[in-house]
Amino acid sequence: MPNSSIIQQNHSSNETLPDTSERLHTVLIALYLIDLAGGTLGVIMMSHQLFQRRSQSVMTIIIINLLVLHTFMLLSIPFRLSYYILQEWKFGRFACKLASAIIYLHMYTTFSFYVAIIIIRLFPPEFRKCCTTTWVAAVWLLGALVITPVFLSYYGTFKTHRPSECFQFHKDIQEVPMVIINYCLVGILVAVCAVLTIIQLSVIYKLAVKYWPDINSHVEFRAQAKSFFFILVTVVCFMPHHVFRVYYIQNCHLDKDHKLLTYNEIFLALTTMCCLDMLCFVAGIAH
């Protein structure tokens, strides 16, 4: 009788594991479908709006760059959906690494543009355009000439993977250089976000005290309040992935059933939700 009870428990646990895995994959697919639909709609609507206005303002320059960035990321989503739905990668090793590079490049470049929006709005208008052009050029050059080539050259080379698998970089993340790089990226993003949050809240507080009670009638206050939108997007979309990444790095060697890997992919998919910011731009929330 005891043996039969143990067998039943093992059988039930084996049944639960696939069910949990299927649910996690369903969540992953749903997130990417929302990104693809909402992001594509936002890019189309924002492009149409910019074409009608033909403005050359500082915000327009950054929005155009965000549009280009989101478009590249959205083009990679169907490949990810194909893999998660079919459970098989059919596009070759280089395409796998490229799809991985795009999502990380999108995350950190988008974050850089958000930081630019927040910081530039703190400067006088006469300095904004020069700072914006310099910042945008530096971000693209760093991403295109440094980060992407390094990622494609070294990421996914520590351990071999089967051709039918993709995004299986959990073995690479255990290597000491990758651990150091990931901890540095987490520290930088969290630190920058914390500093900008404190600065932005202090600026909003000072303007609220200065212009109270008619705060909404002042352009300066509304602009700084809208800048806080980008901090919220960072906290909601980017912060969960980076906080979980620390836990994942410390425990991925125990992840025998790859459940943590799937959770990591879900948090990574959450970072792509920032492409919905174009819908907010169209609605006038963040412009």
Total count of strands: 0
Average pLDDT rating: 81
Could you give the distance between the termini?
A: 69 Å
Largest sheet: none
* Radius of gyration, whole Å: 22 Å
Helix content: over 70%
Q: Tell me the domain tally.
A: 1
Q: Pick out the low-confidence regions.
A: 1-17
CATH superfamily descriptor: Rhodopsin 7-helix transmembrane proteins
Query: Order of SSEs, N→C?
Result: HHHHHHHH
How many helical elements?
8
What is the CATH level 1 assignment? Answer: Mainly Alpha
At CATH level 2, the architecture is Up-down Bundle
CATH topology: Rhopdopsin 7-helix transmembrane proteins
**Class by helix and strand content?**
mainly alpha
Principal-axis shape equals globular
Strand content: under 5%
What topology emerges from the helices and strands here?
Layout: H1 2-53, H2 58-86, H3 93-120, H4 125-154, H5 176-211, H6 219-251, H7 259-271, H8 277-283
Characterise this structure.
The structure is a single chain. The protein is an all-alpha fold and 287 residues long. The chain has one domain (20-283): Up-down Bundle (Rhopdopsin 7-helix transmembrane proteins). It has 8 helices and no strands. The longest helix has 52 residues, at 2-53. 23% of the residues are buried. Keywords: G-protein coupled receptor, Membrane, Receptor, Transducer, Transmembrane, Transmembrane helix. It comes from Bubo bubo. Residues 38-247 form the G-protein coupled receptors family 1 profile domain.
Question: How would you sum up this structure in a few lines?
Answer:
It contains eight helices and no strands. With 287 residues, it is an all-alpha fold. Residues 38-247 form the G-protein coupled receptors family 1 profile domain.
